[in-house]
Amino acid sequence: MEDKTQFIAVVKANAYGSALGAFVQHLVHLGVDALAVAYTEEGTQLRALGIQIPILVFYPQISTLSELVANNLEPCLYNQAVFLALKNILLHEGRTDYPVHLKYNTGLNRIGFLPEEAAWVFDQIRTAPFQIHSVYSHLAASEEKRPSTLSDQQIKSFQKIKSLHLEAITPQPYFHLLNSSGVFNYPEYQFDAVRCGIALHGYANKAEWDCELRPVGVLKSSICQITQVKKGASVGYDHGWVTPKDSSIATLPIGHADGIGRHFGPSQAPVYLHGKAVPIIGNVCMDMVMVDVTGVDCQLGDEVEIFGTHQNASEFALQANTISYELLTQLGPRIVRKWQP
């Protein structure tokens, strides 16, 4: 292996809800070693955009393996059924040395070969038209304060897996274990590559690590109506909020169909108008949210920042008991993405 840590940029789920095409093109320009997506369809979309560098597919489904091969995507094989299905497709097509990656389950218990299945893998590799490019696993609690019993057990298990594969596979594959928060928490276990997804957007699952990153996304809307409401009036569906005094209510054209879930209201999370925090009030609607702008000088068309400069996506999400991953990836297609490199 080369004496450097490879960088695998994870861009699944529309690059975590961002501007996929521009975001990925910029990563390629910066020189990432490979991209990674969740499913075949996402990899096919990247190929259609002209992306030529290696693209790992973390969770290929058997029904999409032929499409995967047709687009020269690199599958991560995680159980015997997927392994054998791909083997049969490649043998039928007369393909050899097809690049694949092996995923092992060391404790997350989601997908992956169990460590004790390694002998089966080695036996099958002898007649499979594969070239094993990498072997990897995934920490279940990479952000957990050290020492973490679970993470330590997983690291120990992965080190054993690595030793077994170095003896059994030629040419030798590369090995990777760490996601974004793992890079911060376990830098000594980078092995040959790291996989970063949410960190590319400025988040790493802990406030102290987030401070070392710069969020790249800003979500804005604008006021489309201002309504003067008397004390004691209800605002929104199902009497979601009752005015404690005569109030000014501004409506924004963004709602739970755009990814701002009902758990952000009423009065759970603020947004920012002219640098001032104004609370979301009433139940979030499918297409709109209402905010209390009483005492704030504003007018139709004024810009409202939902997250960005005054609060980042992680801080905004936390106020509704969720995480930046969920917030970012649920931002809907009606939201216009503007890319500024």
Explain this structure to me?
This protein is of the alpha/beta class and 341 residues long. The chain folds into 2 domains: 6-210, TIM Barrel; 219-329, Lyase, Ornithine Decarboxylase, Chain A, domain 1 (Beta Barrel), CATH 2.40.37. The chain is built from 11 helices and 17 strands. It has helices at residues 12-17, 20-30, 40-48, 65-70, 80-93, 118-125, 149-168, 180-185, 207-210, 313-318, 324-329, and strands spanning 6-10, 34-37, 55-57, 74-77, 98-103, 130-136, 174-176, 193-196, 219-222, 225-229, 234-235, 241-242, 247-252, 270-273, 276-281, 289-292, 303-307. The strands form 3 sheets. The chain has an 8-stranded parallel beta sheet with strand order 7-6-5-4-3-2-1-8. A 7-stranded antiparallel beta sheet has the order 9-17-14-15-16-13-10.
Overall CATH architecture of the largest domain: Alpha-Beta Barrel
**What is the terminal-to-terminal distance?**
33 Å
CATH fold naming of the largest domain: TIM Barrel
* pLDDT < 50 runs, ≥5 residues: none
**Helix content range of the residues, please?**
25-40%
Rg from alpha-carbon coordinates: 24 Å
Q: What percent strand? A: 15-25%
Tell me, briefly, the overall form: elongated
SSE run: EHHEHEHEHEHEHEHEHEEEEEEEEEHH
Write down how many β-strands occur, each being a DSSP E stretch of 2 or more residues: 17
Supply the CATH class of the largest domain.
Alpha Beta
Structural class: alpha/beta
